[in-house]
Specification:
mainly beta; 4-stranded mixed beta sheet; 52 residues
Length: 52
């Protein structure tokens, strides 16, 4: 299994009440499996906070 954690990214949702949030995104084998703040797992991590 391949795991990648993207930390602090801009996440655009389909929820009209909350269109943009800053969260972590965990990807396993080409599928998004979690989107929430503060994910801590054993995975290669990319910190994207402060990037455009």
């Amino acid at each position: 299994m391949t795991r990648l954690l993207v930390k602090g990214g801009a996440v655009f949702t389909m929820d009209p009440g909350e269109r943009l949030c800053r969260d972590d995104v965990l990807v396993e084998d080409d599928a998004i499996v979690a989107v929430e703040p503060g994910i801590e797992v054993g995975a290669k991590a990319i910190d994207v906070r402060g990037t455009a």
